[in-house]
Specification:
By secondary structure, the chain is an alpha+beta fold. It has three helices and ten strands; from the N terminus they run H-E-E-E-H-E-E-E-E-E-E-E-H.
Length: 214
């Protein structure tokens, strides 16, 4: 009888130990889930917002220089962030879209008025070929210009050629980036006139000397 009681007592102790261990595991799981579930929900809804953004087709009419002329070329829209990797993403896409002009990332912090349309301000003097990227929450588009402009000059923009949200509404600008290239500065028209006039004079003088020699 004593052996029977001891055996049952040991079994009861073992069962209590197993139950305690199971309860501890349950509590630990509940604690993890208490943090994991909300985090998963946040990630899910964030993914949904991005996934439902629709990239649009960029047009040269999306941007105008201070003189009112449209961009020289446009490309996009592209998913992601042009300024990622210190502008490496934008440089690679500019090369693929507009050619290898030794593009250089300058800044992704061009001062702008915000919203879906407005103006952004050049951060430095530019001359020759350069590009501006318009970035929204859903993606970015690239716009190439050729000319000579000064720091503080305003370029007008509209975000129609970048992205729309799940409701079809154009998304606000999040930043504007500036890229320069290695192409030489544009020669102003008066200077070009002087150059061609000089060439014509030289040709005329050479012809006159040739006739005199004859």
């Amino acid at each position: 009888m004593k052996k029977f009681l001891i055996s049952h007592l040991l079994s009861l102790v073992a069962a209590l130990g197993a139950a305690t261990q199971a309860l501890g595991s349950l509590r630990s799981t509940m604690k993890v889930n208490a943090f994991a579930i909300p985090a998963c929900l946040v990630m899910f809804f964030a993914f949904q917002v991005v996934a439902q953004a629709s990239l649009q087709v960029a047009s040269v009419t999306d941007m105008q220089d201070p003189n009112g002329f449209d961009a020289n070329m446009a490309a996009g829209a592209f998913a992601g962030n042009d300024a990622q990797g210190g502008g490496a993403v934008g440089v690679a896409q500019l090369t693929a879209s507009f050619g290898d002009l030794d593009w250089t990332f300058v800044t992704d912090n061009l001062s702008n008025t915000g919203g879906i349309a407005g103006t952004l301000e050049l951060s430095q003097n530019v001359s020759g070929t350069f590009a501006i990227a318009l970035k929204s929450a859903g993606g970015y588009s690239l716009y190439k210009f050729v000319g000579t402009f000064s720091a503080g000059d305003d370029f007008s923009f509209k975000m129609d050629g970048v992205s729309t949200n799940q409701n079809g509404n154009v998304q606000d600008i999040s930043h504007g980036s500036l890229y320069t290239s290695s192409s030489g500065p544009v020669v102003p028209e008066p200077a070009m006139f002087i150059i061609w006039s000089g060439i014509a004079c030289c040709c005329g003088l050479a012809a006159k000397l040739r006739r005199s020699a004859d």
